[in-house]
Write a structure and sequence with these properties.
By secondary structure, this protein is α+β, with helices and mostly antiparallel strands. It has a six-stranded antiparallel β-sheet. A six-stranded parallel β-sheet has the order 29-28-27-26-25-32. Strand 33 and strand 34 form a beta hairpin. The longest helix is centred in the middle third of the chain and has 26 residues. It is globular and about 90 Å long. The site of ligand NHV has 14 residues, from loops.
Length: 862
C-alpha cells in the first residue's frame, strides 16, 4: 500500500515538466551486513554477515536490535553483549532508479546529512566520498555517474575503534578520557558523539551507520546552496537584515538574473526587495540588505510572543523562478554580558536589551540510539522544558549538535539555546589534519544553525580547560604532553572556533569553554563567569551550603537519584534490587554515585527500610535539595543570573542526575523545578531567626497588590496561626517583600514539628505560587505516623485522586504502573486535614482496568 502511494507521487512529480529542481529521498530500501569478522567475534557475530533490511536514518546497533540479532541492550547486563559491534566494519547498499527525464537536469547532487563516522561511499563503481566526521554533511555532484534505470549505492563503514587504533599506538599514551568506557581511549580521535563511548550516566554503544537522511537533488541552471538571514542590528524601531546568499550556477555562460527577497511576519502581508545579479558558473555570493521598520520582536517565553518572520530568497531568470529557499526566524538581539563590576565579572544574557535570569537545564541526547530522537520526541521534550518554566537549555558538549527539530521547537516556544561545540572532559588532538576536520564540522554546523532565533550562545567545549587545570593530569603525563594540550586548547578554542563563529555567524557571542575561569573547588573565583558547582555532590557539601556560595551563573550543578521502581523493573528482576547487584551496577555508571547518595541520605533521612524505599527517599531528596539550591540562585539575582542544572534527561534507563527518567516519568525534581522556576514564584530564606519572603519574578511588568499568606502549621493538628501581607512583585527581579522574626510566628522549640505554609495570591484569590518551608530535613523532624485516605474516580485516559490525611504526610508519592503517565502534581506535602486532588493522565489508562494506584509518604519509610 505504501509503495503504491509513493509511486503515485513519483508519477505526479514526473508529470510536472517545467520544474527547476526535484528531490528524491534515498532513505528507503537500504540493506546492511557485517563486512568483516574479527577472529574473537567468530561465534557471536555469525548471524550478522547476512544482509538485513536497514532503516535510514538509523544505526547498525539500532537495526540489529530491531532484527533480534542483538538483545535489548538496556535489560540486565546486556550492555556487555552488544559491544562486539564496534570492532567490526559494516556494509550498506541500496539501488534506486533515475529516469531519462531526470538525467536532463543540469546537475544532480547526492546529499548525506550525516554518516557515522568513517565511511567510503561508492556510486556505480566510483568512490564519491570518504567521510570521517559524524557531524558534517556532504553534498556531492553525481550527474556524470548516474544512469537511466537502476543505480547502485554502497557504503562501507569502518570500525571507529580499529580505524583509530593506530593513532593511539603512535601517540604512545591514552588520553585522560575517563568517560570513554574502553581501556583504549579512542573517542578523542573520532569526530563522533562522545557519549556513544559511554559516560557517567551512559551506556556504551559506539554506533555506525547512516544517521541522517540521504537524498538526491536535481537542478536546472542554478540552486541556492545557503541562505543566511543575518540580523546585523535589531531594535524596536528597525531591524537591519543582511540576506547572505550562496548560489551555485550550473550554466556555462553567465546568467542575468533577479535575486528577490520576499518576507513577511508569519501570516502577514509580504514585502519584497529585488536586486539584479549576474551569475557566473560555480559559487556566487550576494548580500541583499533590507530594513524592517517597527519589527515585531521574538521574545523569550513569558516575556511576550515568539513572533516569527518568513523570508524567501528567489532567483529569477526571464521572470521564471529557477531556485528558491525559505528561512523562518524571529528578530531579536541576544547578548552575553561579561562586564567587570564591583563584585567581579558578570555573566548574563540580555535579550532585546533586557537582562534575563536564565532558568533551565543541561540537555544530553535523549537516546543512546541517537536516531530514535524523532520529531515526536522533541515535541515531548520541549513540553517538559516548557512545563517546568525553563527559558534556556544548554546543548552540552558530550552529545551532538542537535537536529533541526530541536531548534525549531526552541524557536517556537521561546527557549534560548546555549550551544557547546562537541568536545568534553578531555584534551583532544590539535594537529593540522584534526583541526581541518574540526573546521569543516564547525562551519557546517554554524551555517546549519545560525538562522534559529533561539540560538543564543556558542561555547567551545565542556570542561576541557577545567580538566587540564584541576583533574590531576599533570601527575600522569609528561610536561611536554601537558604543554601540547594547553597549546592545542588555545589553537582550537581560542583561535579556530571563535574565528569561525565570527566569520560564519557574526551576531552571537562565544566563550572558549564552560566553565570560564571559576572552578568549584575555588569559591574565591565564584565572583566571575560561569561555574559548574559540583561542591554539591562531588564536594559533599550540604544543599544548604549552595546559598552561601552563589556563582554569577551556574551552568552545571546537580544531584543523582535512581529512577522510580517502575523504570527499574524494566531492566532488573526483583533479585537484583540492591545497590551492589550485578544489574544495578551496570545501570549506575558513576563510580562514587551510590556511596554519595547514601552519604547524603544519612545526613538528611532516617535509614529507609528497604531498596524500594531507598529509591523513593532518594528521589525526594534530589527534588527538595535541588529546589533549595535553585531557589537560592534565583533569590540571589542580580548577582547570580542563571541556574542551568545538570541534567534534564536520560539516554537510557539508568541512575543519573536527570529530573526526568528515560521513560518520561518526572522525578520529584522536575515537579519542584516547575514550582521554583514559575515566572512569578514565592521564595523563603530563613536566616538569623528571621524568615524573609521573596517574590522572584521574570515578568516584564510589576505585579502589584498581591496577597502573601503565611500559615504556621503544626504537623499533628494543622493551622496554628495565619497572617497576611499586601505585597508588590517587582518586574524581572527578586526582592524581599516581607520579613518576620521566628518568634512572631512560633516557638523555637516547635521547629521540629511545625512548618511554614505560605502562598501568594492575586486580588481575585487565585493562588500564584505556594511554598512550604521546613526548618529541618526529615531525620530531625518529628513526622507523625498517619494514614492517607485515597479516593479515585476512574475515567478512560484519566484517574482523579482525592487525598487527605489527618496529620502531615510529607512528600507523598503517587505511583501507577504506567510508563510516562502524567500527574498534575506529585511528591507533595499533604497538610493535616487538607484535601488535595491529583489528576493522572495517560492514553494507556482505562477506566475498566482500575490500574492500581499506590501512595506512600516519608514517615512510612522508617
Ligand atoms: O558527573 C556528572 C556530570 C557529567 O555527566 C558531565 O560530564 O559536564 N559532570 C560532573 C562534572 N561535570 C559534569 C564535574 N566534573 C568533576 C567533578 C569532580 C571531579 C572531577 C570532575 C558534566
Amino acid at each position: 500500500m505504501r509503495k503504491t502511494v509513493s509511486l503515485f507521487f513519483f508519477l505526479i512529480s514526473c508529470m510536472l515538466v517545467a520544474q527547476h529542481s526535484e528531490t528524491i529521498s534515498l532513505n528507503e530500501g537500504w540493506q546492511f551486513r557485517q563486512a568483516s569478522k574479527s577472529p574473537q567475534n567468530e561465534v557471536t557475530s555469525s548471524t550478522a554477515t547476512q544482509w538485513y533490511e536497514a532503516s535510514v536514518p538509523g544505526s547498525v546497533q539500532r537495526d540489529l536490535i530491531r532484527h533480534g540479532v542483538l538483545p535489548d541492550p538496556y535489560y540486565g547486563t546486556n550492555e556487555n553483549k552488544v559491544q562486539w559491534i564496534e570492532n567490526e566494519n559494516w556494509d550498506f547498499k541500496k539501488t534506486f532508479c533515475v529516469t531519462a527525464r531526470q538525467l536532463q537536469y543540469d546537475d544532480a547532487m547526492i546529499s548525506f546529512e550525516g554518516l557515522d563516522t568513517h565511511a567510503d561511499v561508492f556510486l556505480n563503481g566510483s568512490r564519491i566520498l570518504q567521510a570521517d566526521n559524524m557531524f558534517t554533511g556532504h553534498k556531492i555532484s553525481v550527474k556524470k555517474l548516474l544512469k537511466e534505470g537502476e543505480n547502485n549505492l554502497y557504503i562501507r563503514f569502518y570500525s571507529p575503534i580499529t580505524t583509530m587504533m593506530p593513532a593511539r599506538e603512535t601517540f604512545g599514551y591514552d588520553y585522560p578520557a575517563g568517560n570513554d568506557h574502553r581501556a583504549e581511549k579512542l573517542s578523542v580521535y573520532n569526530r563522533k558523539a562522545p557519549y556513544h563511548f559511554g559516560w557517567d550516566w551512559g551506556i556504551r554503544m559506539v554506533q555506525m551507520g547512516i544517521w541522517k537522511p540521504v537524498s538526491l537533488h536535481f537542478y536546472h541552471k542554478a540552486f541556492i546552496e545557503d541562505y543566511y538571514v543575518k540580523q546585523a542590528s535589531v531594535n524596536a524601531q528597525k531591524a537591519h537584515i543582511e540576506n547572505q546568499i550562496e548560489i551555485v550556477s550550473l550554466s556555462e555562460q553567465s546568467l542575468k538574473a533577479t535575486l528577490s527577497i520576499v518576507y513577511s511576519i508569519q501570516g502577514g502581508n509580504s514585502e519584497r526587495e529585488d536586486k539584479e545579479i549576474t551569475l557566473l558558473k560555480g559559487k556566487n555570493r550576494f548580500n541583499l540588505p533590507l530594513v524592517i521598520s517597527a519589527p515585531k520582536l521574538w521574545m523569550p517565553i513569558d516575556w511576550g510572543e515568539q513572533h516569527m518572520y518568513d523570508f524567501t530568497a528567489k532567483i529569477m531568470v526571464d521572470d521564471k523562478v529557477i531556485a528558491e529557499k525559505a528561512v523562518r526566524t524571529g528578530l531579536r538581539t541576544i547578548r552575553h554580558i561579561a562586564r567587570e563590576d564591583a563584585q567581579g565579572r558578570s555573566f548574563f544574557f540580555e535579550v532585546n536589551g533586557t537582562p534575563l535570569f536564565a532558568k533551565g537545564a543541561n540537555y544530553i541526547p535523549g537516546e543512546i540510539l541517537t536516531t530514535q530522537q524523532d520529531s515526536a520526541y522533541y515535541a515531548k521534550m520541549f513540553n517538559h522544558i516548557e512545563e517546568a518554566h525553563m527559558n534556556m537549555v544548554r546543548v552540552w558538549g558530550g552529545g551532538i549538535y542537535e537536529n533541526e527539530e530541536f531548534y525549531r521547537q526552541a524557536d517556537e516556544r521561546g527557549i534560548l539555546v546555549w550551544q557547546d561545540f562537541i568536545f568534553g572532559c578531555t584534551p583532544y588532538p590539535s594537529d593540522d589534519a584534526f583541526l581541518a576536520n574540526v573546521r569543516e564540522e564547525a562551519v557546517y554546523n554554524i551555517k546549519r544553525l545560525r538562522n534559529h532565533a533561539s540560538l543564543a550562545y556558542w561555547c567551545g567545549n565542556n570542561e576541557v580547560l577545567e580538566g587540564l587545570h584541576y583533574w590531576g593530569w599533570d601527575k600522569q603525563y609528561p610536561k611536554a604532553v601537558m604543554d601540547a594540550w594547553f597549546q592545542g586548547y588555545d589553537k582550537t578554542f581560542r583561535e579556530l572556533l571563535p574565528a569561525l563563529v565570527k566569520e560564519y555567524d557574526g551576531t552571537r557571542d562565544y566563550t572558549h569553554g564552560s566553565p570560564d575561569v571559576a572552578n568549584w573547588g575555588q569559591p574565591h573565583l565564584f565572583n566571575q563567569g560561569d561555574v559548574h558547582d559540583w561542591g554539591l555532590w562531588y564536594g559533599e557539601l550540604p544543599f544548604e551550603a549552595m546559598a552561601d556560595r552563589l556563582p554569577r551563573f551556574a551552568s552545571e550543578f546537580g544531584f543523582q537519584s535512581f529512577p522510580e521502581m517502575k523504570t527499574i523493573r524494566t531492566f532488573a528482576a526483583p533479585d537484583q534490587w540492591s545497590l551492589e547487584s550485578e544489574v544495578m551496577k551496570v545501570h549506575q555508571k558513576a563510580s562514587t554515585g551510590n556511596s554519595l547518595i547514601k552519604k547524603y541520605m544519612d545526613m538528611y533521612y532516617h535509614e529507609p527500610k528497604n531498596f524500594e524505599d531507598f529509591v523513593y527517599v532518594g528521589l525526594v531528596m534530589q527534588g527538595n535539595g535541588m529546589e533549595e539550591s535553585v531557589e537560592a540562585m534565583r533569590r540571589g539575582r542580580p548577582y547570580c543570573m542563571g541556574a542551568l542544572y545538570w541534567q534534564i534527561n536520560d539516554s537510557w534507563p539508568v541512575v543519573s542526575w536527570s529530573s526526568i527518567d528515560y521513560y518520561d516519568n518526572w522525578k520529584a525534581q522536575h515537579y519542584r523545578m516547575r514550582d521554583v522556576l514559575a515566572p512569578l514564584a514565592l521564595g523563603i530564606a530563613f536566616r538569623e531567626d528571621t524568615l524573609d519572603f521573596y517574590t522572584m519574578s521574570d515578568y516584564l511588568q510589576d505585579r502589584n497588590n498581591l496577597q502573601l499568606t503565611v500559615q504556621v502549621i503544626d504537623f499533628n493538628v494543622g493551622k496554628q496561626k495565619e497572617l497576611t501581607m499586601k505585597v508588590d512583585a517587582k518586574a524581572n527581579a527578586s526582592n524581599i517583600v516581607g520579613s518576620r522574626a521566628l518568634t512572631e510566628l512560633m516557638r523555637e522549640s516547635d521547629k521540629a514539628n511545625t512548618m511554614i505554609h505560605a502562598f501568594l495570591s492575586d486580588s481575585k484569590g487565585n493562588v500564584i505560587s505556594t511554598k512550604d518551608h521546613f526548618f529541618y530535613w526529615p531525620n530531625k523532624l518529628n513526622l507523625p505516623e498517619t494514614k492517607i485516605e485515597t479516593k479515585i474516580k476512574y475515567a478512560d485516559g484519566q484517574y482523579t485522586l482525592t487525598l487527605s490525611s489527618p496529620r502531615l504526610a510529607k512528600d507523598v508519592f503517587v505511583e501507577i504502573p504506567v510508563q510516562g503517565a502524567r500527574f498534575s502534581d506529585n511528591f507533595i506535602d499533604l497538610l493535616p486535614g487538607e484535601k488535595r486532588s491529583i489528576v493522572i493522565t495517560s492514553p494507556l489508562l482505562k477506566a475498566a482496568d482500575r490500574t492500581p494506584v499506590t501512595v506512600k509518604h516519608i514517615r512510612e519509610t522508617y
